[in-house]
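Each field is set out underneath.
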Amino acid sequence: MYLYWLFFVFLSLCAFRNWKKTVIVWMPLQLLFNDCVCLKYSQPAVSLTLGVNILLLMTYFVCGKKRSDLDHSKFIFKSACIVYLCSFILSMLFSIVPVSVVLTHTIKFFVNGYFILFLFYKALQNKNDIILFFKVTVVVVLLIVGLAFYETIIVDNPVLDFVYSNAPSESIYGKMYYTPPFIGSGDLQRRYGLVRAYSFFSIHIGLGCACTLLYFLFMHSASWSLRVYKKYMVMIILLLCGVLLCNSKTPLLGTFMFTCAFVSMKKIFKPKVVFCVLVLIVAVLNYAPNYLNNIASFWDEDVASEGKGSDLNMRMGQFAIGIMLFQQSPILGNGVGANAVFLKKYEDVMFGMESSWLQILPERGLIGVLAYLYLYVLLYRILRKCMSWKEVFFFITGLMAMETVTGFMDFALYGSIVIVIYKYWRINSALSGS
């Protein structure tokens, strides 16, 4: 934990010296620190990410608010933030959990989501800022995918071994799904014979979904005149490798839908593309012959059960419990944090409530659903200015599909991607207009 505090102090010094660059660098850098990397493990726990976000928010009001090199236009997610805040406040009225628990969850949600995105929106003002963001993102992707390859080949993850060994087991229970190979069976979790890589994340799906969202960003930015990384195709290939190495269905679904946003039928059947796809299939069949069962498990219940993943029966059980809990308070919900209470009672059926709808309905009711849908409407309005209808459609449907199947994606990540795309469009529009 002392190492985490040293890093926190270092970032504090950076924030006071150059707040703007620290915020831009921190946005992709925070992917290297999961929720089990904490400055304080006793309740209420304070993760390193939460601590840094609060620090940047405080230093913004102290030394960054009046800076001339910040963007002082209206925050694009302001209306969604207000709607979400109203939803959270209303859910408190009939909450079944203590007010202190609700407030803790609410503070963490807004600080790690809307507030840090607000700071990033302020800091990102020109093309040099966007270039800095991409440069740090490239380094982060290299580290994330590099560790995933190491974990798959060596069958060990030294980073998560360190995190696991330096955290109280009771504090990370339910937060980290990685178990070091030196504990228990002596092996890492596998699916269809292949290791499920976690990289820096507390769960393997986190790795895959992060790579999927960044894949969309690099695919979209490939058409920009701004060349932040000449060999951007290398990044796209690495991100696809990250999706494969996490060995989960949800990122595969998202990657497929995001690819549809950029690839036409004519491009698919070009000789180069066909050759690359065939090489990939041969490599997968050679080194992981059962990997394609991940795709078959979408419709084959026997294959899904064999992979020890979620199947139709488990999903139906989850939705049945979710609807029952939703009916207890259908309008305002049972309060933020209520699912943690329900999980203790229905643990054998709920299994973490693997859907955004199941996470919203019991806690925030129909008001929460309306706030959730409003965010998607706002995303459409923002992105429709910057991208083609096809790209917007597949991004939003792909994002919703992943959240429906697995649960909430990292809002700080896909929100920052939306901001980068929006800012680049706005900067170009201003230049062309002049």
Remarks:
- Strands lie at 38-40, 46-47, 190-191, 194-195.
- The mean pLDDT is 84.
- The chain has 21 helices and four strands.
- The two ends are 52 Å apart (CA to CA).
